[in-house]
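Assemble and predict.
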Amino acid sequence: MNDPGPRWLSTDEQHTWRESIEAWQWLLAAVDAQLQRDSAMPLAYYEILVRLSEAPDRSLRMTQLAEASASSKSRVSHAVARLEERGWVRRTDCPTDRRGQIAMLTDRGFDALTAAAPGHVEQVRQVLFDALSAEQLRQLDSISAAILAKAASSPKDADGCPAG
Amino acid sequence: MNDPGPRWLSTDEQHTWRESIEAWQWLLAAVDAQLQRDSAMPLAYYEILVRLSEAPDRSLRMTQLAEASASSKSRVSHAVARLEERGWVRRTDCPTDRRGQIAMLTDRGFDALTAAAPGHVEQVRQVLFDALSAEQLRQLDSISAAILAKAASSPKDADGCPAG
DNA sequence: TGGTATTCGTTGAGGGCTCAAATATGAACC
DNA sequence: GGTTCATATTTGAGCCCTCAACGAATACCA
């Protein structure tokens, strides 16, 4: 007789929760849709290209790429397979670990990224930076950091990054 | 010779942007994964069940259900079809508009929702409310409201709610 | 009344994601 | 060396979502 029962959300909490998920689901969907519409790639692919473009030699081991783009190994494996079909990424064997694969951004991939970037950045401005004040952006920064801290401290699942 | 070029993000902006999407993608994935794992339903289905449970007669026209759950008509149509297979929702013809369909939450659907709720709420607490201070929650509230205001003012696509 | 536009809801193809299982290699230990 | 456990990556099934197209019914309007 000691189950405290679920700690239900107060009215205020419920309001904050619903508003927040709706806002961020919309924002993510809007960004994804713009990329899909104008550059024929989902946000997840864009992020993979960005991480590769920033890496030395524009190359990354699959696992590192998964970590850098905050997604699961499985997702990255599927995604890189698609990106390779488009000629945007090339996979080669890792010389020091025969289990490993190295994903490298090709010149065509870099061009695709360069072409997609301006429209994407503009969309990000519209949905986020034009909507918030400087003060709110600072607040958002620390809020996001707090959430990520929670994410880091919670147990990860077997495969990739998501979930808790 | 008057193209200002893309308004690139400053270092700070880029930091805020990357941190924010990573945080919210993780949070949404974590909530979705908990529901999937413990109650065998995605967050989108849970939200549909919630909106129905709150509606008079636990019933809503398909379009209203789409608006209430902030998703596209197509998504809701597919989802309700699945939920109907599970016996959680029943569709009936609308008496006043022969194009219309009314989705009603069944008793079994209500039970499923009741069973799923405590674990879901607990997860929401863990990923959001336990991570943020009261002050941050207030800030988040107004940040989300600002984003949603932007969403409301931006042109909607043909089908449903998402995208901008 | 007839014509046109709009709304309601569904459908199917296509694609991305997750999950669990499988393969192959590396590391550690005795 | 051989066992055993851990790591790296892939694979395929199954599911959800988007997009575009569709049929059907209603609204608007001359």
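The mean pLDDT of chain B is 94.
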